[in-house]
């Protein structure tokens, strides 16, 4: 490979360069490493430096101190042992603004030979490989990068559009390692350029989220997660509206894995800047889940997204959504299902709303079959909870058996029946409390 690059590099760059760039995307790390080293040799050959640096890249690659080749297991172990040191050295090297005349001269010659557009594409590929999951590939890429780039922040600004395109393609790839590299590259880019990268990358990621390709939607969502993890709180607050607008789209995605990834990002945003910013997203989920004009798949997806958001963001959102779900009365099927989802997640934290919830249940129990079934799911969620919310639910239902309204007495009995059915053996300790009003109602004047 080195002989081919040395002999034919200058005269056949159009043939060799696409092959080497393709090797950087290979699923095998050894091929990515070799392609990186050969790409470095080719670039130096084009710049007229290779004759003085024939063994500059990769001469000792994959060879240990005894001269033997490393195995895949040793490669993995080496990554675990040296990763933190390499990352620290990488950061120190790339933040060094001391000009390197040789690197500057190399870049000028590459500009003349490749042209600005193709040079940007090559550097974008190289930057992505710098964030490879394999330590040895990263080390090879960093070595090449140092040799041809004298000022990393300035160069990144120049090639930002090319990098963004490469990152988005990587995030949409089916190969897990390439997606991980794309995520790392995005985080590294946000860390180095901050405010400059957000306006550039957010529209691209949003387009990816709206894509018809599920893999691209998932990759774009994971990319948002990497972006959120690296930007400062101030930057996050400034762009929170745009970020949440993008997340809102995938929280109702028909694919569960994409909804789960979106919830992780939502939780990270909420943890950093507070839940107030996410109120609109949560209310939008409630409205979507309650919109009977939408398909059942869309409503179920929104309901699942709501439940995942509650799971990932804790119980602080309850005071925001429960009062809205309890109106109008009688409860709609979609609102009842949303309340059941909240009950499954929140458990005893729903105690403060229990009085209003039971009141709504009693008022709504005589509705249509679909609504009644959804209401029963709320009772099931509470009665099967491992907390003491089950007994507290029973304590709220029983007083309605003495109501002056015949319909309320009738509906309370239905709720008690559903409670016993759902709770099973766990209702036995409360059997005397349940039987007493039922026996009394056997003599009720209402049929």
Question: Can you give me a brief rundown of this structure?
Answer:
It contains 24 helices and no strands.
Could you tell me the mean pLDDT?
79
So what's the overall shape? rod-shaped
- Helix tally? 24
Order of secondary-structure elements = HHHHHHHHHHHHHHHHHHHHHHHH
SS-derived structural category = mainly alpha
* Oligomeric state of the chains present here: single chain
The radius of gyration over CA amounts to 31 Å
Strands, total number: 0
Task: Report the biggest beta sheet as strand number plus sense, adding barrel if it closes.
Answer: none
Q: Which regions have little confidence, pLDDT < 50, spanning 5+ residues?
A: 59-101
Strand content: under 5%
Report helical residue fraction. over 70%
The rounded distance between the terminal residues' Cα atoms is: 92 Å
Notable traits:
single chain; 447 residues; mainly alpha; 24 helices
Description:
There is one protein chain. This protein is mainly α and 447 residues long. It contains 24 helices and no strands. The chain has helices at 2-8, 13-23, 29-46, 72-94, 101-114, 116-129, 135-148, 152-158, 160-171, 176-193, 198-209, 214-230, 233-238, 240-250, 256-273, 279-290, 296-313, 318-325, 333-346, 354-364, 369-383, 389-397, 406-423, 431-441. Helix 3 runs parallel beside helix 7 (135-148), helix 4 (72-94) packs parallel to helix 7 and helix 15 runs parallel beside helix 17. The longest helix has 23 residues, at 72-94. It is rod-shaped. Mean pLDDT is 79; it is low at 59-101.
């Amino acid at each position: 490979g080195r002989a081919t690059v040395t002999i034919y590099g200058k005269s056949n760059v159009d043939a060799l360069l696409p092959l080497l760039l393709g090797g950087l995307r290979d699923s095998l790390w050894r091929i990515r490493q070799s392609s990186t080293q050969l790409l470095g040799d080719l670039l130096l050959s084009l710049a007229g430096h290779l004759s003085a640096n024939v063994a500059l890249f990769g001469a000792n690659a994959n060879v240990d101190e005894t001269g033997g080749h490393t195995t895949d297991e040793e490669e993995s172990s080496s990554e675990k042992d040296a990763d933190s040191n390499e990352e620290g050295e990488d950061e120190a090297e790339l933040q060094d603004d001391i000009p390197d005349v040789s690197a500057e001269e190399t870049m000028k010659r590459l500009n003349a030979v490749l042209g600005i557009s193709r040079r940007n594409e090559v550097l974008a590929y190289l930057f992505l490989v710098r964030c490879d999951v394999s330590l040895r590939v990263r080390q090879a890429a960093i070595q090449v990068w140092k040799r041809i780039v004298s000022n990393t922040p300035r160069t990144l600004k120049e090639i930002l559009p090319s990098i963004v395109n490469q990152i988005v393609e990587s995030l949409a790839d089916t190969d897990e390692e390439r997606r991980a590299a794309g995520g790392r590259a995005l985080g590294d880019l946000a860390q180095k350029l901050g405010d400059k990268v957000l306006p550039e990358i957010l529209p691209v990621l949003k387009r990816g989220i709206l894509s018809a390709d599920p893999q691209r939607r998932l990759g774009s969502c994971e990319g948002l997660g990497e972006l959120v993890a690296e930007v400062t709180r101030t930057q996050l607050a400034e762009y929170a509206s745009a970020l949440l607008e993008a997340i809102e789209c995938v929280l109702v995605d028909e694919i569960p894995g994409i909804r789960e990834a979106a919830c992780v990002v939502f939780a990270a945003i909420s943890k950093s800047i507070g839940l107030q910013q996410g109120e609109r997203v949560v209310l939008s989920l409630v409205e979507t889940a309650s919109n009977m004009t939408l398909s059942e798949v869309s409503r179920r997806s929104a309901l699942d997204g709501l439940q995942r958001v509650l799971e990932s963001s804790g119980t602080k959102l309850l005071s925001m959504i429960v009062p809205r779900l309890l109106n109008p009365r009688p409860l709609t099927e979609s609102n009842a299902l949303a309340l059941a989802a909240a009950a499954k997640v929140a458990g005893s934290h729903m105690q403060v709303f229990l009085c209003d919830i039971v009141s709504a249940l009693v008022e709504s129990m005589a509705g249509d079959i679909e609504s009644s079934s959804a209401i029963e799911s709320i009772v099931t969620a509470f009665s099967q909870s491992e907390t003491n919310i089950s007994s507290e639910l029973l304590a709220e239902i029983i007083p309605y058996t003495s109501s002056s309204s015949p319909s309320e007495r009738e509906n309370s009995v239905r709720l008690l029946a559903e409670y016993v059915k759902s709770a099973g053996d766990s209702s036995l300790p409360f059997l005397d409390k349940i039987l007493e009003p039922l026996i009394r109602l056997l003599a009720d004047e209402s049929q």
